[in-house]
Design brief:
Layout: H1 15-19, E1 27-29, H2 32-41, E2 45-50, H3 55-65, H4 68-77, E3 79-84, H5 89-103, E4 110-114, E5 120-124, H6 138-151, H7 153-170, H8 182-195, H9 212-225, H10 228-243, E6 257-258, E7 266-267, E8 270-271, H11 272-289, H12 292-308, E9 319-320, E10 323-324, E11 327-328, E12 333-334, H13 336-343, H14 347-355, E13 368-369, H15 376-383, H16 387-405, E14 413-414, E15 417-418, H17 419-436, H18 439-455, E16 457-458, E17 461-467, E18 470-474, H19 477-494, H20 497-514, E19 515-516, E20 521-522, H21 547-562, H22 565-575, H23 579-584, H24 590-600, E21 604-610, H25 617-625, E22 632-638, H26 642-645, E23 662-667, E24 670-671, H27 678-685
Helix pairs in contact: 4-6, 6-7, 8-24, 9-10, 9-11, 9-24, 11-12, 11-17, 12-17, 14-15, 14-16, 15-16, 17-18, 17-19, 18-19, 19-20, 19-21, 21-22, 21-24, 25-27
Length: 689
């Protein structure tokens, strides 16, 4: 009987690291032990960075890290470190910047060779076990790097030091002469409009990513300008995404991206951060347009997170893999025969196969990714039924097919809880709970907030990651900013003053830990973080918004709620140096531009006061939260509750008029007459009075 090899990763909590715990590679987690060993043995470090839902990470593991001969070579020549990029965005960002500087591109798996001081020497992404597709064989690369380190050590280390100095200089932004005006938003829109794919929606060509921050910006611009092109770009893209294979037509939720321009064939993993942001985007677009399809997608996406991605204690899991049973996408694919075995030969089958395009023939490796390739009205006409009847048949078919799919082998799930990503999803649940009148969504947001604050703090310091009862790693800027942003939405959904108190505490800690007055901006790691070769400062909104852009909008909102001018002053200091960049390269700065849109306003400030019985409150809430008002700050309390009003100038000296719930609306330092009637409130919110 052979004993299965176990390395140091067996003691970690990250599912991605645990996947590598039985590789023959002598993996270390990131930490001083590995670097001390490299220094003592005068070996370079091999750093491998990936994440659990990464398809090519799994391929490289099977081909190289599980190969005894390649593992022997790695162990002999290097000290090997494995990092989960989702746990350690700081390490990932530093060395991704280095790889992109060295090679012109990046991605995962990321393979970087370092000195014992963490200085990058050489790097790349996926390397095959043999020479293939213009890529060098991984064993050949290992020998070449080790040889260069031994025989040209001074030369390669000097190149590494120059690269680090270049990286340190690149994080310094020069002062911008541009003013923070509407012209930046109009310029950004023109750039995005020029990149728009009029046929299929989205920006550019394949592969296509959902880019929810860009479409939130377009939605804001549509409201600000009334531009019909913005409306067309937004609705065409959201409809095509929702009807494509990138959206899970049975279980709800979006896959990570589409490999083609038509949104048909996805990379099948599902990420919490995508689905939290996209649920909000579809919710907001429903509020703005009234299109019921967008509301359905928002609810199905939130229902998916609640059903499949929520820990019993309230935390949200990180991701679901693309692969099951060793095949990418297998869980999600269908044949006509499989569908008929589930649906029989009745009306549901007659509607479902043409509706989801399965009658058109296979579209992925001999099977079908479900999508909606034609207008539902067209399918209904072909079947000779009404669109409402078609909707009923599809709803029943969806339930039956989903139940059958649940009996399949599921893709793996990364069940760690990350604060930042939870913040994105928590805000979506809180906003949807209030806007849709869904108390179950509000409860999910509250439970999530309570879980993070109780399970993911130590001595008041927010931690990054939690799994199986263990929280670890100091929280980053994005964790503080996105959690505080979510708790502000929880406050607006509940008017429970404790959440606003937590927001202020987190914001003040965020400024203490991450703000740098010399650079007038934020670092991503706290002043109490371990020292790395570069202190990272990410300014780009990628798949996840950067911590700085979320922090800026948060501070703008807090300044209005609390009357603390310092919050606004610091937000402006962080935003102003970005003015030149965000207008010229908007696809990388969507959340920054939304923060600018909020800053430019006008911001609608609403204070709600209600009597003990809450008379008339519900109708005011429906009017207030049932419309698209992105630049809105809302506060409220029961009359005669000084604790709930403390520290909130908008609530001072306000009362319920004649014993009825009352809304006080202000805009640009001008307040309207108190409104107790929903129709009056509607006119005030629309700017008609």
């Amino acid at each position: 009987m052979t004993t299965r090899h176990t390395n140091r990763l067996a003691k970690e909590t990250s599912p991605y690291l645990l996947q590598h715990a039985h590789n023959p590679v002598d993996w270390f987690p990131w930490g001083p032990e590995a670097f001390e060993k490299a220094k003592a043995e005068d070996k370079p470090v091999l750093l491998s960075v990936g994440y659990s839902a990464c398809h090519w990470c799994h391929v490289m593991e099977r081909e190289s890290f599980e190969d005894p001969e390649i593992a022997r070579l790695m162990n002999e020549l290097f000290v090997n470190i494995k990092v989960d990029r989702e746990e350690r965005p700081d390490v990932d960002q530093i060395y991704m910047q280095a790889v992109q500087s060295m090679t012109g591109h990046g991605g995962w798996p990321m393979t970087v060779f370092l000195t014992a001081d963490g200085v990058p020497l050489y790097g790349g992404t996926y390397f095959p076990p043999v020479d293939r597709h213009g890529l060098p064989a991984f064993p050949r690369l290992l020998r070449a790097v080790a040889d260069a380190y031994r025989n040209k050590k001074g030369e390669v280390m000097e190149a590494g030091r120059r690269l680090v100095e270049q990286m340190r200089q690149s994080e310094r932004l020069g002062g911008s002469l541009a003013l923070l005006t509407e012209e930046i938003l109009f310029s950004a829109f023109q750039h995005l409009s020029s990149e728009f794919d009029d046929r299929d929606g989205g920006l550019g060509h394949a592969p296509k990513f959902p880019q929810p921050m860009i479409w939130e910006l377009i939605l804001r611009f549509r409201k600000r300008s009334g531009n019909p092109r913005a409306h067309q770009m937004l609705t065409h893209t959201l409809t095509r995404m929702a009807r494509g294979g990138m959206y899970d037509q049975l279980g709800g939720g979006f896959h990570r991206y589409s490999v083609d321009a038509q949104w048909l064939v996805p990379h099948f993993e599902k990420m919490l951060y995508d689905n939290g942001q996209l649920a909000r985007l579809y919710l907001h677009t429903w509020l703005a347009t009234g299109d019921p399809e967008y509301r359905r997608i928002a609810e199905e996406t939130l229902d998916y997170i609640f059903r499949e991605m929520t820990h019993p204690d309230g935390g949200f899991y990180s991701a679901q893999d693309a692969d099951s049973e060793g095949e990418e996408g297998k869980f999600f694919l269908w044949t006509p025969q499989e569908m008929r075995e589930v649906l029989g030969t009745g009306e549901e089958a007659r509607a479902a196969l043409p509706y989801w395009g399965v009658d058109d023939g296979p579209n992925f490796e001999g099977r079908s990714i479900l999508c909606v390739p034609r207008e539902p009205t067209e399918v209904a006409a072909q079947l000779g039924i009404s669109e409402a009847d078609l909707g009923g048949l599809i709803s029943r078919a969806r339930q039956q097919l989903y139940a059958a799919r649940e009996r399949r082998v599921h893709p793996g799930r990364d069940d760690k809880v990350l604060v930042a990503w939870n913040g994105l999803a928590c805000r979506a649940f809180a906003e949807a709970g209030r806007s849709l009148g869904r108390s179950d969504y509000t409860r999910a947001a509250v439970r999530n907030a309570e879980f993070i604050l109780s399970a993911m703090q130590k001595d008041g310091r927010l931690l990054r990651s939690w799994r199986d009862g263990e929280a670890k790693l100091l929280g980053y800027l994005e964790d503080y900013a996105m959690l505080a942003d979510a708790l502000l939405a929880v406050y607006e959904a509940t008017f429970d003053a404790r959440w606003l108190g937590e927001v202020r505490r987190l914001a003040d800690d965020m400024l203490r830990l991450f703000w740098d007055q010399e650079r007038e901006g934020f670092f991503d790691t706290g002043v109490d973080h371990e020292r790395l070769v570069v202190r990272p400062r990410n300014l780009f909104d990628n798949a996840v918004p950067c911590g700085s852009s979320v922090a800026v909008e948060l501070l703008f909102r807090l300044a209005i709620l609390t009357g603390e001018e310092a919050y606004e002053r610091l937000a402006v200091q962080a935003l102003r140096p970005m003015a030149d960049l965000v207008g010229r390269y908007p696809s990388g700065f969507g959340r920054w531009l939304s923060g600018l849109d909020f800053h430019l306003g006008p911001v609608v400030e609403v204070a709600l006061i209600w009597p003990r019985g809450g008379d008339g409150l519900d109708s005011l809430l429906r009017e207030l939260f049932g419309r698209y008002l992105p630049n809105r700050v809302v506060t409220g309390c029961q009359e005669g509750d000084p604790a709930a009003a403390r520290g909130i100038p908008l609530l001072e000296s306000r009362s319920a008029i004649q014993g009825e719930a009352t809304a006080y609306v202000c805009r640009r330092y001008v307040c309207q007459v108190p409104a107790t009637d929903a129709e009056v409130l509607a006119r005030q919110l629309s700017g008609e009075v």
